[in-house]
Amino acid sequence: MKEFFRNPSKVALTSLIATVVVSILLVFLITLTDIHISGKVIMAVALSFLIVNPVLGFIYSFFIKGKRKIIYILLHFISLCTISVFAFIAFMFTYFLPFGP
After folding, report:
1. The domain containing residue 83 runs over which residues?
2. pLDDT tens, 20-52?
């Protein structure tokens, strides 16, 4: 593990891949019509992971040397913005709009 966290390129790439995979799994979980308490727990863990993981990858992206630095920074920034927008929309539809799902 020491060698993994000392290589910022590997950490940023793993963070980006994990964010995409967990986002896809979360969308699949949401499409299921009958979500029980275990699904809600999984959703809470996945959402907290989706908040922390891109931030960690974004911070590690600043330590990458070379031409790929800006690409990783942009991809993590886009990931953070997308997750934030969808979380805001879900919050607004759930609590403030009467016609929301």
Report:
1. 2-95
2. 898 888 878 777 756 677 777 777 788 888 889
Contact by Cβ (8 Å): 93, 101: yes
Q: Who's near 10: CB < 8 A, 6+ residues apart?
A: 4
Three-state DSSP class for residue 26: helix
pTM over 0.90: no
8 Å CB contact between 101 and 92: no
Question: Backbone dihedral region of 75: left (phi > 0), alpha (psi from -120 to 50 degrees) or beta?
Answer: alpha
As a whole number of angstroms, the distance between CA 46 and CA 30 comes to: 12
In total, how many domains does the chain have? Answer: 1
